[in-house]
Amino acid sequence: MPRRFIKWAAVAAALGALSLSAANQPQFGSAWSHNMTSAERGLPDFFSPETGSNILWSATLGTETHSTPVIAGGRIYVGTNNGNPRDPKHEGDRGVLMCFEEKTGRFLWQLVVPKREEDIFFDWPNSGISSTATVEGDRVYLVSNRGEVLCLDAKGMADGNDGPFREEGIYMTRIPPGTDPQHPPPMLSPGPTDADVIWKFDLTAGAGIWSHDAAHSSILIRGDHLYLNSGTGVDNTHKKIRTPDAPSLVVLDKHNGRLLARDYEGIAPNIFHSTWAGPSMGKVRGKAQIYFEGGNGFLYAFEPLAATPEKVVPIRKIWEFDFDPGAPKTNVHRFNSNRRESPSDFFGMPVVYENRLYLAGGGDIWWGKNEAWLKCLRADFDGSNPTNALLWEYPLQKHVMATPAVWKNLVFIPDCGRMFHCVDATTGKALWTHEIKGEAWASAFVADDKVYFGTRGGTFYVFAATAEKHLLNTIELVKPISATVTAANKVLYVATMNTLYAVGYRHE
What we know:
By secondary structure, this protein is mostly beta strands. It has four helices and 33 strands. The chain has one domain: Methylamine Dehydrogenase, Chain H (7 Propeller), CATH 2.130.10.10. The strands form eight sheets. Strands 10-11-12-13-17 form a five-stranded mixed beta sheet, with no helix packed on it. Strand 12 (249-253) and strand 13 (259-262) form a beta hairpin. The two termini are 42 Å apart. The model is unreliable at 1-21 (pLDDT under 50).
């Protein structure tokens, strides 16, 4: 895999509707907080693709899959590429969101999106759709590989074109650069296994951003509003921000995709690499706060919109917290490839748990220093004294892309230094560690008192979710793993680069 793509691909893994109960898993992580936990029970601690043990079904994906599966309404949605085409009319490199039937793994429909070709750094080859979908009712929300926020019909085209968007044929058709607009290529015709687009919003044209390596987000829904990171980043020289006034956090109307709000915090000029991390939400003294990790190494708390404005308004900042106070803050791109000194950035999301915030960050995996930390803050921080916000910090082995999983006063997190950590959630004290085979791009996922995660080396781990180390199983899946595990309705879903496995006990 090209090393430039690796920089951002883990976002979806470490990264994409509102219940902790054991049933659907309609977004990345649980509830608004994006904690990597589930109340599911009755899940196996072992499975084997070779023997079929505890494999309920498997489905072929593309050749690269960096998106975490989500489950809602009897369907499973997962982003991948077109390396194993499901429909011969869709040829070549494409971004793909596949939809399967939950019980059987039967393929239902797919969104197929041509790659951006103006600049290789906008949409890295073969990377597919890396964003994780968010599902609410019969609507699927997603950021495509082209940097477009899409609202899709959960049933696809099988029940017809619901509109108001009716240009799916044009949208699916690759138009090569330099094509004479008077002589466009033949348009594709949507079929029953194609996606039904309800509306789309182009972040580049509509919000003034420039994607780097690929567009990516996990969309947070609150009421009528969608909150998402913009994905804006450096240009192809990695030393310049194309649009220094671009937003990092945006809010759209979920009904029609209209831009409602954006941040005006001046984050963009000091983005070290890109805006990798999606937003999460918690409540402090009964009031909601949106938490957002900027590409400049700062954590922000914003006030959510109280109503739907008629024109674009600023998202009001409540406070900001400098995750890495000793890091450079200006002229940041002179530190590219410096493994000793650089700014910090974020890949995973902040997690809210019992009035505390847990977040992990540090030097960028490809462009920054090796240092990385897991930190815990007071969620009721008011911004007046940053030294009172930090409750503890814990040094990780090397670089981190995962979102923390907080479970019964324990925090579980793997890193890119090939180490898995269990930390006391109250004190930040290390309880145990375990050396793992390969870098961790995915987050750890806790369900049924077990911890599940896979590595880029293709090894899948199952630990007991306890303060003492108990390794229950290691399973060699051979293919690299970027996606975080998901569980729903007594089934565990594990995605490698090219296969989705439904893991569970057979009930006959």
